[in-house]
Design brief:
heterotrimer; A mainly alpha; B mainly alpha; C alpha+beta; A: mainly alpha; Ferritin; 11 helices; globular; C: alpha+beta; Ubiquitin-like (UB roll); 2 helices; elongated; PaaB (chain C); phenylacetyl-CoA 1,2-epoxidase activity (chain C)
Chain lengths: 282, 342, 101
């Protein structure tokens, strides 16, 4: 009679309802190539991989806690994209030393993590989550846009996929910045507070480190992204009737393994089960 | 994970359907049911049918939403990045399934706000299985294999439920659900092929989830007040005991593949009936958990209430923004037409 | 008469969602969702109804903007086509077997 009956008749016949699993062509899960990264490239891939992992972990904490169910699905999608980027990048970073993505994610200590301080900031309220997303998504979009032209083909391939996904994250954050800043008095108050709480960590995104000099044409020089970042967020801030917050700048140091107090707790949670079972597979 | 609410429903007794003096629309309703056709939202339907559906579909939706929690509990601690991604995708699917079902329930004239209010006020039921805690990673496997497995047994027949929007939502859900069961099975398989500690973790978890999973099919047929009417209306297609038996028949060979023991000493093959005989189910536990005295009832509701309350200012902000933008557009188009006129 | 399920009391209105599963096919109704406005409605629809690549295009329509036929007049409303078999090609049996007809 309907598609229903056709789809599931076989399942009913086997007394269980083996809901016919659609035959689909599965895309590659990771951007995975045979290339082995040099140690400098691996270090750079670790920067980016750790950023995505730590931010994805933060968003993962939110699942089932969003302000509306539809938003739970949206934030879940963003978290999934970021975990996907982290896996590809850490997989590649590990190729330099024969380690897996999980070796790097689960068995490195805090000083070995290279993520930026902004990524590890606790979630806070929805305005803080959106403020952090607004900054990171615009930063990542500019970064991956340029990284597509990297002389390193693996990094370029990862960036080509990631840029489309962070483009959507960017749009998601813009939609919410507008709604929160122009919605109600309360939402505007919260948005303003969130933006000024997040801003001290923005500067670190655009700081160069010595390794960048050795990766000319391969890595994107962080300081070169600042102008594009500022230009991209400016019209949104105007429409949202917001201004770039003035205030202090956090010292940062994530790229050198110096972190805020928050990362240790995040890693403790991330790694607790895996570390209780050395050598196990899951 | 997903659970059909049907067998749990048992809160309101449906009115007996009286035979004589059928109105034309009632006749048409009966004819559609008899012909195995579908009832659609704007069709006339007996009030009791509508009520029964609202109850079942909304309970099913609530179960999906509350069911996100026992698993989201392990997202941040998932033992590999691949497992983390799978778990996020699965919990996200559950939010999606809840939304498909709320959407189906809304076609019966009930609002999602009303359903949500009933849930967080503790007035609505959801599947009791989600009131059990998930202390170990292996529980992610058991939930997929046993809980989602039981849910699928229940749900596949619901794809043919007589109410169109419910059946259509279930088709979508069933297609997505098969991934849930498989990933759970594979979590357990990986554990059973792992270290001694991992094998123990898997067996201990199966021991905890096996009986609650069997209880998901609801009370025995002779003690299930709503079942008969639901079957007559073709909302439900098989009895609780029938589905429970099917589930166990399917489970035994799968347990053998895993190498886990099902914790029922009386479970054995019966040559005569060509089915497995099951041990006695402890229904006192079922009724305790159903009555709100389960391990995690309060915690689950509180989480839902917190998310809802903490989200209020966000929902209000978005609604206020929508009003402002609509007004702005209206003014702009008014100005445009003025320009044209002048 | 508007589509069923819409309620004026909800803070975020209800939207009906239509998805085109691939080029060359019509948009088909897949369900509904809540969103504060059309911009977020179309995004929520993308997140909710195309997680597995089910669509190449999405429509959202406010549920209260849909006008439906009157269900109570169902019989009469759809009665007319019956008895007009000459609208169907299969009515013309004498031309059967003639090529290219």
């Amino acid at each position: 009679m309907s598609a229903t009956d056709q789809t599931f008749s076989a399942g009913e016949a086997d007394a269980h309802g083996h809901a016919s699993v659609d035959v689909t062509t599965l895309d590659a899960e990771l951007i995975e190539r045979a290339d082995v990264a040099t140690s400098d490239v691996a270090e750079y891939a670790t920067w980016l991989g750790d950023d995505s992992l730590v931010l994805g972990q933060r968003l993962g904490e939110l699942v089932s806690r969003a302000p509306e169910l539809e938003e739970d699905v949206a934030l879940g999608n963003i978290a999934l994209d970021l975990i996907g980027h982290a896996r590809s990048l850490l997989h590649y970073a590990g190729s330099a030393t024969g380690q897996s993505e999980d070796d790097l994610a689960y068995w490195r200590g805090e000083p070995e993590f290279r993520s930026l301080h902004l990524m590890e900031q606790p979630n806070g309220d929805f305005a803080h989550i959106i403020a952090r997303q607004f900054v990171t998504a615009h930063y990542l979009f500019e970064l991956y846009s340029r990284l597509r032209a990297s002389a390193d083909e693996t990094l370029a391939a990862i960036a080509s996929k990631a840029v489309k996904e962070v483009d959507y994250h960017r749009d998601h954050s813009v939609q919410w910045v507008l709604r929160l800043s122009l919605g109600t008095d309360e939402s505007r108050r919260r948005m303003l507070a969130a933006l000024s709480d997040v801003w001290p960590y923005v500067d670190e995104l655009f700081r160069d480190e010595p390794i960048i000099d050795r990766l000319e044409g391969v890595a994107v020089r962080p300081s070169t992204l600042r102008a594009a970042f500022d230009a991209a967020i400016a019209p949104v801030l105007v429409e949202a009737e917001l201004e770039v917050p003035q205030g202090f700048t956090a010292s940062g140091g994530g790229r050198r393994g110096v972190h805020s107090e928050h990362l240790a707790f995040l890693l403790a949670e991330l790694q607790v089960l895996t570390r209780a079972h050395p050598g196990a597979t899951w | 994970m997903t659970i059909p609410a049907g067998p749990y429903a048992a809160s309101t007794q449906s009115a007996p359907v009286t035979e004589p003096e059928l109105s034309p629309e009632e006749q048409q309703f009966n004819d559609l049911i008899a012909a195995d056709s579908r009832i659609e939202p704007r069709d006339w339907m007996p009030e009791a049918y509508r009520k029964s559906l609202v109850r079942q579909i909304s309970q099913h939706a609530h179960s999906e939403i509350i069911g996100m929690q026992p698993e989201s509990n392990w997202i941040t601690r998932a033992p590999s990045l691949k497992r983390k991604a799978i778990l996020i995708a699965k919990v996200q699917d559950e939010a999606g399934h809840g939304l498909y079902l709320y959407s189906a329930a809304q076609t019966l004239g009930t609002s999602r706000d009303d359903m949500t209010d009933a849930l967080i006020a503790g007035k609505a039921r959801y599947s009791s299985i989600f009131n059990y805690p998930t202390p170990t990673w292996a529980d992610m496997g058991s939930i997929g294999w046993l809980v989602d497995g039981a849910a699928i047994c229940n749900q596949v027949p619901l794809c043919r439920a007589s109410y169109g929007p419910y059946g259509r939502a279930m088709v979508r859900i069933c297609k997505e659900e098969s991934f849930h069961q498989r990933q759970g099975f594979e979590i357990l398989l990986e554990l059973m092929q792992g270290t001694e500690a991992q094998r123990q973790m898997a067996q201990e978890s199966v021991n905890r989830w096996y009986w609650p999973a069997l209880m998901m099919f609801g009370p025995p047929d002779d003690d299930s007040p709503n079942s008969a009417q639901s079957m007559k209306w073709k909302i439900k297609r098989h009895s609780n005991d029938e589905l429970r038996q099917r589930f166990v028949n399917m489970l035994v060979p799968q347990a053998a593949v895993l190498g886990v023991t099902l914790p029922d000493p009386d479970l054995r093959w019966n040559d005569e009936t060509q089915m497995y005989d099951l041990g006695e189910i402890d229904w006192t536990e079922f009724h305790e958990v159903l009555a709100g005295r389960g391990p995690a009832n309060a915690q689950r509701l509180q989480r839902r209430r917190d998310a809802h309350d903490e989200g209020r200012w966000v929902r209000e902000a978005a609604a206020a923004y929508a009003v402002k933008i609509a007004a702005r557009k209206k003014n702009a188009s008014a100005a445009d037409s003025k320009d044209l006129a002048s | 008469m508007t589509a069923p399920g819409n309620s004026a009391t909800e803070i975020w209105p209800l939207w009906e969602v239509f998805v085109r599963s691939s080029r060359g096919l019509s948009h088909v109704h897949v369900g509904s969702l809540h969103a504060p406005d059309e911009t977020l409605a179309v995004r929520n629809a993308r997140d909710l109804y195309t997680r597995r690549g089910e669509g190449v295009s999405v429509w959202v329509v406010p549920a209260d903007a849909i006008t439906t036929s009157d269900p109570d007049a169902k019989g009469a409303f759809f009665e007319s086509p019956s008895g007009k078999n000459y609208r169907h090609a299969s009515y013309y049996s004498k031309s059967e077997g003639v090529k290219h007809l």
